[in-house]
Amino acid sequence: MTALLRYHSALFLRSQRWLAPLLLYAAVVAVGVRPGDPVLGSLGIAAAGLLPVSAWAARICLTREPAAARAVTAAAGGRSRAHLAALVTGPGWSVLAGAVAACAVTATGDLSGTSAPAALLAGVLATTACALTGGAVGALASRPFVKPPGWSVGALLLGALLALVTTGSPAKHAVTALVAAEGAARPPWAACAAAVALAAVTAAASCRAAARLE
User: Fold this and answer.
1) Cis bond leading into 144, ω under 30°?
2) Alpha carbon of 171 to those of 69, 71, 88, 184: distances in Å?
3) Rounded to an integer, what distance in angstroms lies between the CA atom of residue 75 and that of residue 53?
4) pLDDT one-digit tens code per residue, 147-204
5) What is the DSSP string of 38-90?
6) DSSP, residue by residue, the chain
7) Per-domain residue ranges for the chain?
8) Cα–Cα distance between 179 and 163 in angstroms, integer?
9) How many CB atoms lie within 10 A of CB 80?
10) Of 186, 183, 161, nearest in space to 52 by CA
């Protein structure tokens, strides 16, 4: 599995398709977060902006590999394992970007009423929850479920929007916990755990569908 993850990470990074979602995320954080703003609200904005970026990155990793190369990878490592490695790569790099953003926001935000470690922990958990929820959206909006590019992009945008506004979404719960927080930070453990469960179920369904349909 490690070799498959390295392979898909190399494909993702060398393709330079990561530049567009990364620049989008940087723009969201730059516009939505200002130095000196309340740190928890800023962390919520940074986490929310990561969801569509993670969904986009997941779709890139699932569709970047040519069909012939995908067949070779599936023969060498197993179709389900190869699909899982591609699915994990995009959100994995998104979690890293979110952690970096959380560190930067915590360092420049107003910590009144809370401490830097508590705020950073809450921010990392929220960005992880949003990245994993975005990865689930990307999995459902890509092959093998939605193959035509136009429909896939439309489903991706709609899914990302619904994941941010729908009651019960782990991402919405995590963002709301930060934006509406008053006083000390309350790390969104429950939202992060729910996002992990959602991502695991979605990944299992996606891998099983890939093994049967491709």
Assistant:
1) yes
2) 34, 34, 18, 20
3) 30
4) 898 999 999 999 999 999 999 999 999 999 998 776 677 899 999 999 999 999 999 9
5) BHHHHHHHHHHHHHHHHHHHHHHHHHSS-HHHHHHHHHHH-HHHHHHHHHHHH
6) -HHHHHHHHHHHHHH-TTHHHHHHHHHHHHHH--TTSBHHHHHHHHHHHHHHHHHHHHHHHHHSS-HHHHHHHHHHH-HHHHHHHHHHHHHHHHHHHHHHHHHHHHHHSB-TTS-HHHHHHHHHHHHHHHHHHHHHHHHHTSTTT--SHHHHHHHHHHHHHHHHHSTT-HHHHHHHHHHT--SS----HHHHHHHHHHHHHHHHHHHHHHHHH-
7) 2-213
8) 16
9) 18
10) 161
- Give the relative orientation of helices 2-15 and 67-77 as an angle to the nearest 10 degrees: 160
Reported as a single tens digit per residue, the pLDDT across 9-49 is 888 888 888 999 999 999 999 999 999 999 999 999 999 99
Q: Residue 161 has which token pair?
A: 């929007």
Q: Are 171 and 129 in contact (CB under 8 A)?
A: yes
Q: Which amino acid is at 83?
A: H
Look up residue 32 and give its amino acid.
Answer: G
Task: For residue 155, count CB atoms less than 10 angstroms from its CB and return exposed for 0-12, middle for 13-18, buried for 19 or more.
Answer: buried
